[in-house]
Description:
By secondary structure, the protein is α+β, with helices and mostly antiparallel strands. The protein has helices at 11-14, 23-34, 54-58, 78-93, 122-125; strands at 5-8, 41-44, 62-66, 100-105, 109-113. It has 2 domains: 1-60, no CATH class; 61-116, no CATH class.
Amino acid sequence: PNGSVLLADEGGISFSSRESMSDANRLLSKLLFIARHKDISILFISQNSANIEVNTIRQADYLLLKRPSLLQKDFERGKIRDVYGDVADDFKKLGGDRGLVYVYSDSFRGFASNALPSFWSERASKAFGRAKLK
Length: 134
């Protein structure tokens, strides 16, 4: 409905860049193009921007970037790789805070930290653990 929020956790699984012409990705692209008109906020969680449909990046209003894993930034889409490159030293200086996130938007660029939500659990974190692969 209008005015709602859609959370796509593990967006690279549900909306894979390797399946760009799938029914799900075509529907997603249409939704992304009209979301602002319907006051719908869409949040994607993905381990790497290269894993998700490119229109999710093109239509982004902001990015929240976690500390990259060993080779993650090397395989990110170009612009996001550049952003990670710009703040790599800052991630190192700020240490091991698990809640650390870099915010990249028109109105703010900087670091923030947050605690895990009260509903978080290891089980919730591994929700796709029992998924059947086709």
